[in-house]
Please model this.
Amino acid sequence: GEDVEQSLFLSVREGDSSVINCTYTDSSSTYLYWYKQEPGAGLQLLTYIFSNMDMKQDQRLTVLLNKKDKHLSLRIADTQTGDSAIYFCAEGTGANNLFFGTGTRLTVIP
Amino acid sequence: DAMVIQNPRYQVTQFGKPVTLSCSQTLNHNVMYWYQQKSSQAPKLLFHYYDKDFNNEADTPDNFQSRRPNTSFCFLDIRSPGLGDAAMYLCATSRVLEETQYFGPGTRLLVL
Model:
């Protein structure tokens, strides 16, 4: 079955770049996603990438996909305290077929 | 603004006392989902509706039921909550063939 793995914790200093990593097992994934969850809140879609792309950039966010290694990363440039949250990687073949990782808790140190 | 709304945001119930959580959407999406998320875990899909067609995940306990009276509303009923059912419950919506789901803010359920 599908398996999506992430490291549980990441701490960075304010202003540095953060890199959150994810590995997945399903080679038939069509889309790979990053969601952000702030304390006590729902999941907010940050960005997603088609499996035939290897990079997507959106302002401070850069997504890199290595399809051969089934590795996805999210880079946040100039990390701010407001970026402190849990970041979930997810993969799937469409909206009705998402599998989430366990999330990476990002702590930004002022 | 088009959105997914969940009420209440916090719900306290007693062990064994039925409870209903509510989700509504103004996005006019035809698919609605319910997830359970326990602390430090990934959201776990319980079931989803494609229009009026109900799709239950194989490992969703019978204690969990759902109703979708119309396109806008979907309810999660927990018939006899146990202590292990304390969690955040997330509602999400999507269109068929769309790339992703849109989530509500969640309802945190506490079982005493």
Observations:
- The longest strand of chain A covers residues 43-50.
- Chain A touches chain B at residues 4, 8, 31, 33, 35, 40-45, 48, 88, 94-96, 98, 100-103 (CB under 8 Å).
- The radius of gyration of chain A is 13 Å.
- Chain A has a mean pLDDT of 92.
